[in-house]
User: What shape does this take?
Amino acid sequence: MSSRPAMPSPDPETVEAATDGDLASAKRVLGIEAAAITALAASLGKPFLQALDIMAAVKGRVVVTGMGKSGHVATKIAATLSSTGTPALFVHPAEASHGDLGMITKDDALFALSNSGETSELADMVAYAKRFGIPLIAVTSGADSALDKAADVSLVLPKSEEACPMGLAPTTSTTVMMALGDAISVALLERKGFSSDQFHVLHPGGKLGRLLIKVSEIMHTGDELPLIEVGTPMADALIEMTTKSFGCVGIADAKGMLMGVITDGDLRRHMSPDLLGRDSGDVMTKGVQTMAPEMLASEALAIMNSRSITNIFVTEGGRAIGILHIHDCLRAGVA
Assistant: This one.
């Protein structure tokens, strides 16, 4: 039975030199791309605002397209636009020439990405846009290219070197396109006043969805609410506390306005032989912490942690409408 020869141990100096070279390469790439994004920011002006005007006014969708690596960037831009309040979709230019042009309507705007501006696969989409009066926005590094000349608005990217040492692989150019797409998406979001509520509607799942859960979505209401009317004897208050299992009970007036809360701590402080016969209003703590139903559950959790409490009553116009337990936040994934 033969055995494999032992592999020689790598020379520490060789390994260190390779590591240093790797880090230098990575830092060079990031430096080149960072400089290109800085140049892009400095170049923005009237064409950028015109592009925003078109996208903000579109009645249909922003159709984003591109070929190759630009197509991958276009897919991401379409997703970002859609998730931030500007309906968009990606249409592959090659598929468009074989029937997918039917996905584009006269109410849409075409947002075409091509580093050179001479991508032949875009020709049919550009011609279709011109034929039916569909606004065409171009993103290209090719000033005076075919795409630049055909576009209603052209966002010409500043000249910058690709981070690839051969200057061939799309690296810096795609990074700049991606950054421009983010800039457009966020500018449109802010122009439209897109709110966290709207964001939550489009992001119900995952961590983003959990961070945007409201108190009203997870609070206890109705028969689950531990609430008694002022003047109720402590004997009945204790029954309500025990039945509802929150370790507290709210005291409200005849109109449901929250006047105070009785907690386990209040019971200990007022412990005496005559406790059960006392008026709950005499035992309650006034001026307690409450929250609004539209407050984010993450904010409510922070309040409970900072005050070392496990429950908070939810009020609307002073009326008790719900109660939130710290475990409700944790079960919803808010942490």
Remarks:
- The mean pLDDT is 89.
- The first strand starts at residue 62 and ends at 66.
- DSSP finds 15 helices and twelve strands in the chain.
- Residues 215-331 form a domain with the CBS-domain fold (CATH 3.10.580.10).
